[in-house]
Fold:
Amino acid sequence: MPSLFTKIMNREIPAEIVYEDQFVVAFKDISPQAPVHLLIVPRTEVSGLSTLPEGDGDHQHILSAAKKIGEMLHLEGGYRVVINQGPDAGQTVDHLHAHFLAGRPLGWPPG
Ligand code: AMP
Structure:
C-alpha cells in the first residue's frame, strides 16, 4: 500500500508542492505549526529514520533540499529541520519525512 505521502507525490491526493527534485518532494503541512511548515519527503518509501538502510544515498538529499528551500524562501533568519521517529517523538505518518519550520522564533527545547 503506498503511503499517504507517496499518494501526494503521485498527485493522487492534493497538496501544495513547493519544491521537488530527483530525490525528494516538499509540500505544505496540512496543519502548519509555523508560518512556514513544509514536509520534505524522500521519493523512496522508508517507514522512518530507524529503518533507513545502512549506506542509503537517496535519503541524504533531505538535507540538501532543506538548504535549497532555505535559500529559495530567503530565510536568512533561520529555520529548523526536524525528523520525528516513533511514537515518543509523535511520528504519525510511516514514511520518513522532515519537517521544515520557519517564520517565527522557534522555542528550544521543543515540547
Ligand atoms: P509526523 O507527525 O512527524 O509523522 O508528521 C506528519 C505530518 O503530516 C503532520 O504534521 C501532519 O499535519 C501532516 N499531514 C498529514 N496529512 C497531510 C496531508 N494530507 N497533507 C499535508 N500534510 C499532512
The mean pLDDT is 96.
